[in-house]
Design goal:
The protein is an alpha/beta fold. 33% of the residues lie in helices and 22% in strands. The strands form eight sheets. An eight-stranded mixed beta sheet has the order 12-11-8-6-7-14-15-23, with helices on both faces. A seven-stranded mixed beta sheet has the order 5-4-17-16-18-19-20, with helices on both faces. Strands 21-22-24-25 form a four-stranded antiparallel beta sheet. Strand 28 and strand 29 form a beta hairpin. It starts with a helix and ends with a helix. 55% of the residues are buried. The chain binds ligand 6R9.
């Protein structure tokens, strides 16, 4: 963090809209203190207020971080789909629009009411049941950002199956890995996706995935939606055994499916995410706790009110899409927006054009998109009427103050609150964020903890809270959370020890985020970035280990080391150093092959921007690659390389500096 970003540029809260009966900062502080003094009572009251229970729960929180056996509202029975859909219909809101979908082409708009949603989700749920899906099964969902994706997630929740959504930008290899790791017997996909006027051949990729690992043995049925379904037309994709034409099957179903009665602690979904080591982890979120946390944070962070049109433009393939496209807005009975395209198609005014046409009231995106759009100047956001927006949100990585100011001043015309929401796949929803009209903003800081979240800044070595401020009055360390909250993931599927080791046993008594943080004199949180080997490219989490293992799979590569490099738009880009096996030589063709390999193994978004072939890597005598040194070299911080004396061959450092300099 630079000195500049720490400058306490506080945007006066008077500029930010204050809701009716809005709380003051002191009210927040009081309620926050109450929420962390007794989280169990705080969340129990919220769970009674915000969710409908078939059987009430007797206890809020049970278990703790030490044992790794946290539960919320266990014994209470509910159904999350019923809560997100049916109860709004029963309350007389059946004709209220639940979803507004805007496809790749701006003219492709669909509006779906709560009643229509209940019927369609029921039909999909019945189709799943007919295909053999049972309570507790894992259904892998590989779909583009179309309403059927959200509906399929809700249909799974309705029948008690766990959805495992795989982002449609992932490759066949990555899809296969996730089907296999979860022993998933069902795959739901589509013939194609559309983005920026181009077709993405999802079914072909799914077909390729089925040929890998044990997927074909595992899969009982593959249900295929058609992006432009026409019952009269020929199959628009290459068929394989076990394929089912999903739109046809769905149309045959009864439009009501009774919701399964689930325990609060029954799994709602799995979502695979990258960690610092090994293969992606399948984090499991539960029904009651996750649903409550999604509903609560959506309403509080975004000041959600009746009549709002809430637009989170993330893809459902990521946690942001789960919590803030599907579950959060629908659990609140609001109208959610689903967006299939990109911020620059057909031109860089797309977002603001949508805001104007649909009268969007909350708009939520990632800093990488804001930085990209900033480059096209003020002309686009200025051209459109964005006055319906009250809250602008940012998520995925720290937002640099320049991008924050542009978002606030040019997009929000100095009238909206910008909420900088810090959270993770593991946390289920926002854990540190400002609240509209309540928390004064500081561009670049995600500000103060959300209710019930007891943040702690720990000394990374001692594992105890940092108690001594530095000369500026700041506390610096790793970010941890000391008390359980309902939205936290409960386990990694089939790998509870890995869950404990990664999150709960690193620092005893704390949940460890993997991020480092500075707490300023006002208690504001400034996220510095990951302390582990996890990269954040355009807001996408990628483990260095995943990219390295894709690279070494090439016959010519002996060793690979991957680090993040600062990138103006993506936040970070990937820099890879590869050492070739004896007798192989460097060529442009090889570099292209390696890029393609990563594309094939993980997905296009993980492809390195820079691949350098080097004679060797900076290794310790015990053979450990010192990534710290590579990081400094790609960041051009060669004056602060630190101790290089433990390197087996210190002369390699100069060779690498030279290589990086000549690449740029
Ligand atoms: C929601 C999501 C989580 C990691 C997290 C951190 C980074 C997310 C941030 C932020 C600073 C913010 N991150 N939001 N850093 N300010 N507002 O992105 O989940 O994909 O699991 O990534 O993203 O490093 O640890 P996920």
């Amino acid at each position: 963090m630079t000195e500049k970003s720490l400058a306490p540029h506080v945007i006066a809260k008077e500029i930010a809209p204050l809701g009716e009966g809005a709380m003051s900062l002191d009210d927040y502080k009081q309620l926050y203190a109450q929420s962390i003094a007794d989280p169990s009572s705080f969340w129990s009251a919220e769970a009674q207020k915000r969710l409908d229970w078939f059987t009430p729960f007797q206890q809020g929180l049970a278990g703790d971080f030490h044992a790794g056996d946290v539960t919320w509202f266990a014994g209470g029975k509910l159904n999350v789909c019923y809560n997100a859909v049916d109860r709004h219909v029963l309350a007389g809101k059946g004709d209220h629009v639940a979803m507004v979908f805007e496809g790749d082409e701006p003219t492709d708009v669909r509006k779906i009411t709560y009643l229509e949603l209940q019927r369609k989700v029921s039909q999909i749920a019945n189709a799943l049941k007919m295909s053999g899906v049972r309570k507790g099964d894992v259904v892998t969902v590989y779909l583009p950002m179309i309403p059927e994706l959200a509906m399929t997630m809700l249909a799974c929740a309705r029948i008690g199956a766990l959805h495992s959504v795989v982002f449609a930008g992932f490759s066949a290899e990555a899809l296969a890995q996730r089907i296999s790791a979860a022993a998933s017997k069902f795959l739901i996909t589509a013939d194609q996706g559309r983005r920026g006027g181009k077709s993405i051949p999802l079914k072909d990729i799914a077909n390729a995935a089925r040929e890998k690992l044990d997927c074909e043995e595992l899969l009982e049925q593959v249900l295929v939606f058609e992006r432009f379904y026409d019952p009269e037309s020929e199959l628009p994709y290459e068929q394989m055994p076990k394929d089912v034409r999903m739109d046809e099957l769905v149309a045959e179903q009864r439009p009501y499916c009774p919701p399964e009665i689930m325990d609060s602690e029954d799994g709602l979904f799995l979502l695979y995410t990258s960690g610092s080591t090994g293969k992606p982890k399948g984090l499991m979120h539960t029904s009651g706790g996750y649903a409550l946390y999604a509903a609560f944070t959506t309403q509080n962070t975004f000041d959600l009110r009746d009549g709002d049109l809430f637009a989170c433009v993330a893809d459902c393939g990521w946690i942001t899409g789960h919590t803030y496209v599907v579950y959060g807005p629908l659990l609140n009975g609001s109208t959610t927006f689903l967006f299939e395209s990109t911020p620059v198609y057909p031109d860089p005014g797309r977002y603001w054009d949508m805001v104007q046409r649909h009268k969007i009231t909350q708009f939520y995106t990632a800093p990488t998109a804001i930085r990209l759009l900033m480059r096209y100047g003020d002309e686009y956001p200025t051209k459109y009427d964005t006055s319906t927006v009250r809250v602008l949100g940012s998520v995925g990585e720290p937002i640099n103050p320049e991008a924050f100011r542009w978002y606030f001043e040019v997009v929000g015309k100095n009238k909206c609150t910008v909420v900088d929401t810090y959270w993770q796949t593991e946390t289920g929803g926002h854990v540190v964020t400002n609240f509209p009209g309540i928390t004064p903003m500081k561009p670049g800081s995600c500000t103060l903890p959300s209710y019930g979240i007891a943040t702690a800044v720990l000394d990374p070595l001692a594992g105890t809270p940092v108690t001594e401020p530095d000369e500026k009055g700041h506390y610096e360390g790793v970010l941890a959370i000391s008390k359980p909250w309902p939205g936290m993931a409960r386990t990694c599927i089939n790998a509870h020890q890995r869950y404990l080791k990664t999150y709960l046993h690193v620092y005893k008594g704390y949940y460890f985020t993997g991020d480092s943080v500075i707490l300023d004199q006002d208690g504001y949180h400034w996220i510095i970035g990951r302390v582990d080997d996890v990269l954040n490219v355009s807001g996408h989490r990628i483990g260095t280990a995943e990219v390295e293992s894709a690279l070494v799979a090439h016959g010519a590569v002996a060793q690979a080391a991957v680090v993040g490099q600062p990138h103006e738009i993506k936040g970070q880009s990937i820099a890879a150093f590869v050492m070739l096996v004896e007798g192989q030589s460097e060529s442009e063709a090889l570099v292209n092959e390696l890029k393609n390999l990563v594309r094939k193994d993980i997905g296009g978004f993980a492809s390195p921007d820079m691949i350098l072939v080097t004679p060797s890597l900076p290794m310790t005598r015990s053979g450990k690659i010192m990534r710290r040194i590579l990081r400094k070299i790609v960041c051009h911080e060669v004056d602060s390389l630190g101790d290089t004396s433990t390197l087996a061959d210190p002369s390699i450092v100069d060779v690498l500096i030279e290589k990086v300099a000549s690449f740029n």
